[in-house]
């Protein structure tokens, strides 16, 4: 019995020893809903929303990059700051004919030819005027529109959350290289779903399930069908033979 008692004693002290050995890891940088640039107190930056560039955004796909830039934040977002196209002689100048439905009051800043939006003084002044430290960023091309601006914002001290689904580029390699450079520069890379969930925090909140699920159904159909499936199960909830207990 002595060996068994020793074994029981060993397992009893293991959790204490493991906890004592744990060291704090890097901080979990989260979106501060009172500081991130969204809604009346906040702002989302959508850089270079140009129709001519959609054809080069093959990663992840032109479809994804058409939807994600116009929906980088939950439905409370009413005043993002956009930095659309350079002057008319630029080959990619045409803006989408339809305004993003969730951003009717967006501040549109037309640059004079600067590739990096941060090189435009009007754009810099508009961002600084918000007096916020966190920025959610969506740009059309990963390796230019998003990367250049994200790294410029980081150099200025902003915490930048780049929506990786809102941009694309010519090849997977270019996208990986750009994302690696942004990550090395301290940019936080997240998809639209992660950004929305971090801002919502709790399905019981307002904004919560009631507001966010219809929004997800429109902009993230894969999750919208999770909610639709639950609705169908509750409304027409009968089990087919073989489903019980699965």
Radius of gyration: 23 Å
Mean pLDDT: 76
- Name the assembly state: single chain
Q: Beta fraction of the residues?
A: 5-15%
The count of β-strands is 6
- Biggest sheet character: 6 strands, parallel
| Anisotropy-based shape | globular
Structural class: alpha/beta
Give an overview of the whole structure:
This protein is α/β, with parallel strands linked by helices. It is built from eight helices and six strands. Strands 3-2-1-4-5-6 form a six-stranded parallel beta sheet. It is globular. Residues 72-81 and 84-99 have low confidence and may be disordered.
What distinguishing features does this structure have?
246 residues; alpha/beta; six-stranded parallel sheet; 8 helices; 9% strand
List the topology elements.
Blueprint: H1 2-21, E1 44-47, H2 62-67, E2 81-83, E3 107-108, H3 121-129, E4 134-139, H4 142-155, E5 159-163, H5 172-184, E6 188-190, H6 192-200, H7 209-219, H8 221-235
Parallel strand pairs: 1-2, 1-4, 2-3, 4-5, 5-6
Helix pairs in contact: 4-5, 7-8
């Amino acid at each position: 019995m002595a060996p068994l008692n020793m074994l029981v004693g060993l397992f009893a002290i293991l959790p204490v020893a493991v906890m004592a050995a744990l060291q704090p890891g890097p901080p979990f940088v989260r979106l501060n809903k009172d500081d991130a640039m969204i809604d009346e107190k906040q702002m989302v930056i959508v850089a270079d929303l140009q129709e001519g560039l959609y054809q080069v955004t093959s990663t992840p796909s032109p479809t994804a990059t058409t939807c994600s830039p116009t929906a980088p934040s939950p439905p409370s977002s009413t005043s993002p700051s956009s930095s659309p196209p350079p002057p008319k002689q630029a080959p990619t100048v045409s803006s989408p004919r339809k305004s993003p439905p969730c951003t009717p009051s967006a501040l549109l800043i037309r640059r004079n030819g600067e590739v990096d939006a941060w090189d435009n003084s009007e754009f810099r002044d508009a961002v600084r005027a918000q007096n916020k430290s966190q920025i959610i960023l969506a740009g059309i091309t990963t390796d230019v529109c998003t990367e250049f601006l994200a790294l410029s914002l980081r150099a200025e001290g902003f915490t930048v959350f780049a929506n990786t689904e809102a941009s694309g580029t010519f090849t997977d390699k270019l996208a990986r290289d750009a994302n690696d450079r942004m990550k090395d520069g301290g940019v936080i890379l997240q998809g639209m779903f992660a950004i929305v969930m971090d801002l919502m925090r709790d399905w019981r909140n307002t904004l919560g399930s009631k507001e966010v699920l219809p929004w997800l159904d429109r902009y993230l159909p894969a999750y919208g069908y999770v909610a639709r499936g639950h609705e169908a199960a509750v409304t027409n909830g009968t089990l087919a033979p073989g489903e019980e207990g699965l």
